[in-house]
Amino acid sequence: MSYNPNNHHRKSIRLKGYDYTQAGLYFITICCQNRECLFGNIINGEMILNDAGNIANECWLAIPNHFPNVVLHEFVIMPNHIHGIIELKTKSVGAENFPPHISMGVNDSMGANDSMGANDDSPLRSPSKTIGSMVRGYKIGVTKWMRQNTDVYDVWQRNYWEHIIRNENEYNRIAQYILKNPQNWDNDTLK
């Protein structure tokens, strides 16, 4: 179906005018397509990861390898979604949030060599080092494994949910929510 502005009214769920390269803490939720349970099961209030869940966990832990200005805080891989707190330590470098060196060579891979999708040398990319680019790279890494090792093609829902954490009380409340999420699975709204 082609784009029709009379029928397609996509609104951004991001905070208008907010710089998502800005240092701070961000609570992220990423859901599986149709909330399908792809990553394991909850047994007696504990998340038991399957192979796909282990890959989802490994890809999450690898985010700082691709984005050195990131510190991961509490996170949990659930059967059909991921919750995590990501801290950006510094703002992106370079004018207009571009890295200092941009290669315009013919052999650019457009991210093909970077399983997390964070190739700074690609001339055709959205701004790097944003929360959005981290989530996109994470989704790419998990999806690539799923497509190569399972019959699942559509792993994720479009987009993701984020919340900017503004103070210590909020951080503590969200961190506890994440850590207790497996114990509260029976009441989970993302189930």
Blueprint (SSEs and pairs):
Elements lengths: L23 E8 L8 E4 L2 E4 L1 H11 L1 H4 L3 E8 L3 E8 L42 H19 L11 E5 L2 H13 L11
Antiparallel strand pairs: 1-5, 1-6, 2-3, 4-5
Helix pairs in contact: 1-3
By DSSP (H or I, 4+ residues per run), the number of helices equals: 4
Largest sheet: 4 strands, antiparallel
Sheet/helix structural class: alpha+beta
CATH fold name: Alpha-Beta Plaits
Query: Uncertain regions: pLDDT < 50 for 5+ in a row?
Result: 92-126
Summarize the helix and strand pattern as letters: EEEHHEEHEH
In the CATH hierarchy, the architecture is 2-Layer Sandwich
Q: Assign the CATH class.
A: Alpha Beta
Cα separation of the termini:
30 Å
Q: Give the averaged pLDDT, no decimals.
A: 78
Going across the major beta sheet, what is the strand order? 4-5-1-6
Write the CATH homologous superfamily.
Answer: Transposase IS200-like
How many β-strand stretches? Answer: 6
Number of spatially distinct domains: 1
Summarize the structure.
The protein has 191 residues and is an alpha+beta fold. The chain has helices spanning 51-61, 63-66, 131-149, 168-180; strands at residues 24-31, 40-43, 46-49, 70-77, 81-88, 161-165.
Structure, explained:
By secondary structure, the chain is an alpha+beta fold. The chain has a single domain, classed as Alpha-Beta Plaits, CATH 3.30.70.1290. 25% of the residues lie in helices and 19% in strands. It contains four helices and six strands; from the N terminus they run βββααββαβα. It has helices at residues 51-61, 63-66, 131-149, 168-180; strands spanning 24-31, 40-43, 46-49, 70-77, 81-88, 161-165. The strands form two sheets. A four-stranded antiparallel β-sheet has the order 4-5-1-6, sandwiched between helices. α1 (51-61) runs antiparallel to α3. The two termini are 30 Å apart.
